[in-house]
Write a structure and sequence with these properties.
Blueprint (H helix, E strand, L loop, with lengths): L2 H10 L11 E5 L2 E4 L4 E4 L2 H4 L8 H13 L10 H12 L5 E5 L2 H16 L4 E5 L8 H6 L3 H4 L9 E4 L4 H7 L4 E6 L2 E2 L5 E2 L2 H14 L2 E5 L23 E4 L10 E5 L20 H16 L2 H22 L4 E7 L2 E6 L4 H9 L2 E2 L1 E3 L3 E4 L7 H18 L1
Helix pairs in contact: 3-10, 4-10, 11-13, 12-13
Bound molecules: pyridoxal-5'-phosphate.
Pyridoxal-5'-phosphate binds next to helix 5.
């Protein structure tokens, strides 16, 4: 490993990140290759971004074509590529209108502004404990984990938290003074926690009664990752707003706020905006992602292979009951909760040339590219099994 790179990083950058000690040369498909020629299976795909892996030929082609025309015009113009992308996005989300952004946190801020404008300053906005919604002030205030908020107070007013999956807490806190509830129907950063059907059903019932807005934060768990377009599609619940980002840009910065027809008139012209949001090059890459995932059937493979992946992991769990506490998630969004901190296993797996992530201290987070094959999964399973043996 090139120590120089780390010394330079230390010298030049604010120390916000704990970088992985690999000097990457390039990526191909589901693999990352370092400058010494080592090839790694990347099973967290740039934190759920690289749905089609690295250097996907269709993305390279679409991006090259678009950038040779124009990389950026500003949202003073509407372009063909934005229209084509928006049509596909709305078609597969059952929503009516879209606002394009650069990132997850910008999508959350857009949704928050829309809610405040519609519902006024006094009503309460809720998110769930253990949630993660982003790093800007609104998104950070919504985030239900103290470690991300501590030291940044004062936060935004009138934002509170409901205990994850607690129907009792839901009934205690929700009433006619509720403006909105933000939910990751499968929490990512919080440790791959799946919202229960019971909780979702009661949330929907309460919305019928009080008329508040349900926001599905699908930034990590959307765009087919769970084997359905969005994680709320596993439940009998229809959100009023979907926020998305990460995978929809195929590796380029892109996000979206999607709304139902009912909310389509809240922002008048000039009330909200962005310079880079909906960048044409990002939209060109995003169009390829949506086409592959939804129109070409990649999502069905994720659903089928996800079932296989879970069944095999559960077999491994039986062999290592002292190590593995629980396996959670859906499709290609998998959390393996360990009975101890996870970083040491991440390191052992990395030595075996498999890249995974650990969140919430003891949850291995597996987020394979959606193009991963059964062979890739088997390679992961073999090395995970071997790594657990080494841990003994
Ligand atoms: C569920 C969820 N919401 C919001 C965000 C923030 O997205 P971004 O990092 O693109 O601002 C993330 C990022 O990890 C996320 O996982």
């Amino acid at each position: 490993m090139n120590q120089d790179l780390f010394a330079k990083e230390h010298q030049l950058f604010l120390p916000t990140y704990n970088r992985i000690p690999i000097n990457i040369s390039h990526g191909r498909g589901v693999h990352l290759i370092d400058k010494d020629g080592n090839k790694y299976l990347d099973f967290f795909s740039g934190l759920a971004v690289n749905a089609l892996g690295y250097a996907h030929p269709e993305i390279v082609k679409a991006v090259s074509e678009q950038i040779s025309k124009f990389a950026h015009l500003s949202n003073n113009y509407i372009t063909d590529i934005q229209i084509e992308f928006a049509e596909l996005l709305l078609k597969h989300s059952n929503m009516s209108k879209v606002f394009l952004t650069n990132s997850g946190t910008e999508s959350i801020e857009g949704a928050l502004k829309l809610i405040r404008k519609k519902e006024g300053p006094d009503k309460k906005i809720f998110a769930l404990t253990d949630s993660f919604h982003g790093r800007t002030y609104g998104a950070m205030t919504l985030t239900g984990r103290e470690k991300y908020r501590h030291g940044f107070e004062p936060l935004l007013p009138n934002i509170f938290h409901i205990k994850f999956n607690s129907v009792e807490d839901l009934y205690e806190k929700i009433n006619s003074e509720t403006a909105a509830v933000f939910v990751e129907f499968i929490q990512g950063e919080g440790g791959i926690n799946v919202v229960s059907r019971e909780f979702a059903d009661h949330l929907a019932l309460l919305r019928n009664k009080y008329g508040f807005i349900i926001v599905s934060d699908s930034i990590q768990c959307g765009i087919g990752r769970t084997g359905k377009p969005y994680s709320h599609n596993h439940l009998n619940l229809y959100p009023d707003i979907i926020v998305t980002a990460k995978a929809i840009g195929g590796g380029l910065p892109l996000g979206a706020v999607l709304t139902t027809e009912k909310l389509s008139g809240v922002f008048e012209t000039g009330k909200h905006g962005t310079t880079f949001g909906g960048n044409p090059v990002s939209c060109a890459a995003g169009k390829v992602v949506l086409h592959e995932v939804f129109e070409n059937g990649l999502i069905n493979e994720v659903a089928a292979l996800g079932d296989y992946f879970f069944s095999q992991l559960n077999e491994i769990k039986k062999m290592f009951p002292d190590d593995i506490k629980e396996i959670r998630g859906k499709g290609f969004m998998i959390g393996i909760e360990l009975n101890y901190e996870g970083q040491s296993l991440v390191k052992i797996m990395r030595d075996k040339k498999v890249l995974i992530n650990c969140t919430n201290n003891n949850v291995l987070r597996i987020l394979p590219p959606l193009i991963s094959t059964k062979n890739d999964i088997d390679f992961f399973l073999y090395n995970f099994h071997e790594s657990l043996k080494l841990k003994k």
